[in-house]
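re: the backbone from monday

yeah here it is again, tokenized this time
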């Protein structure tokens, strides 16, 4: 077994075993997610399994730094900011923290990342780069906060957030490697392996849930990889936006729709397209596998961008249009 596959396999095994340990502890302490009228599950289920993903990935990043595979500033940014995310999410899973305080910590974590990144002064759009100045750093700050939260919004049915993390981490890893960003690619693969270990326990019917401690961290982690990828290795941030289009479109369109209707969009609800699909009679597994299948559209477009970077913006437009159509069709399936 090559060192790379041994590295990935060890992360997978650690995450799988740690998830089982967290489940045992949660059952013993009765740390259960009790179903309510906004839930997609029907049985009380242990939560907090995302801690296993966090531990696996943090250990992997420290390991990579020990062998000088990734830069020090990335480790400080990723582990420091990620630790803030994990702590506030852990207490939110246990005691429910007000939205304003959670977002404040998310903002501090994002600012921490951008400090070690050295800001985000320009944006690569494929055929040229736009100079953004100080506005770029604000743009990156808001984007990182939103990425952290939108991934959490998409963690509402068994297997979905974990499966997407395996997909995005794997494809993102190969994408980073194609730009000679080998160190960051190893981190992306570690995220995929950690999510896969958790997914053993989370596939339908789920034996444990990820909780905010896992879902917010995954969104944050992909955002950090995207920002560092562009700054250090000329890997466009927008390529990561393309890769995450299914989650970005559903979370953003559903949230904008609730804001338009003057609903409390930050409260728990049951109106995302993937939740609507379950309400329409599809199983959690069917919805998850369908979204993974639709990711093939993104993969084709991403491969096009790798070969011809000038097609980045057209690829983004096509991807967003396609998934917005799917979102609309699912949301209004019984009203058209």
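seq for it, each position gets an aa:
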């Amino acid at each position: 077994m090559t060192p790379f596959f041994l590295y990935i396999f060890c992360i997978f095994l650690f995450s799988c075993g740690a998830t089982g340990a967290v489940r045992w502890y949660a059952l013993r302490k009765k740390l259960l997610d009790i179903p309510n009228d906004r839930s997609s599950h029907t049985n009380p289920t242990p939560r907090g399994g995302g801690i296993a993903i966090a531990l696996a990935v943090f250990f992997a990043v420290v390991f990579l730094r020990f062998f000088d595979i990734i830069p020090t500033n990335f480790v400080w940014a990723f582990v420091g900011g990620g630790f803030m995310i994990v702590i506030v999410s852990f207490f939110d899973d246990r005691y429910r923290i007000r939205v304003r305080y959670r977002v404040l910590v998310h903002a501090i974590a994002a600012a921490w990342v951008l400090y070690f990144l050295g800001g985000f002064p320009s944006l690569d759009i494929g055929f040229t780069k736009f100079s953004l100045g100080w506005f770029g750093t604000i743009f990156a700050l808001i984007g990182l906060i939103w990425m952290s939260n939108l991934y959490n919004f998409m963690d509402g049915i068994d297997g979905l957030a974990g499966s997407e993390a395996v997909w995005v981490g794997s494809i993102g890893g190969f994408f980073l490697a194609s730009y000679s960003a080998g160190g960051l690619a190893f981190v992306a693969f570690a995220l995929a392996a950690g999510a896969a270990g958790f997914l053993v326990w989370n596939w339908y019917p789920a034996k444990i849930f990820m909780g905010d401690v896992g879902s917010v961290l995954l969104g944050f982690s992909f955002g950090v990889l995207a920002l560092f990828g562009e700054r250090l290795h000329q890997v466009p941030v927008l390529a990561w936006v393309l890769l995450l289009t299914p989650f970005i479109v559903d979370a953003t369109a559903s949230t904008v729709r609730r804001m338009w209707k003057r609903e409390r969009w930050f409260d728990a609800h049951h109106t995302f397209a993937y939740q609507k699909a379950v309400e329409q009679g599809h199983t959690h597994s069917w919805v998850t596998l369908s979204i993974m299948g639709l990711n093939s559209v993104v993969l084709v477009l991403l491969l096009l961008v790798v070969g011809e970077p000038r097609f980045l913006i057209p690829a983004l437009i096509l991807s967003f249009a396609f998934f917005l159509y799917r979102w609309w069709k699912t949301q209004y399936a019984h009203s058209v």
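The beta strands are 32-33, 45-46, 122-124, 129-131. The first helix runs from residue 3 to 29.
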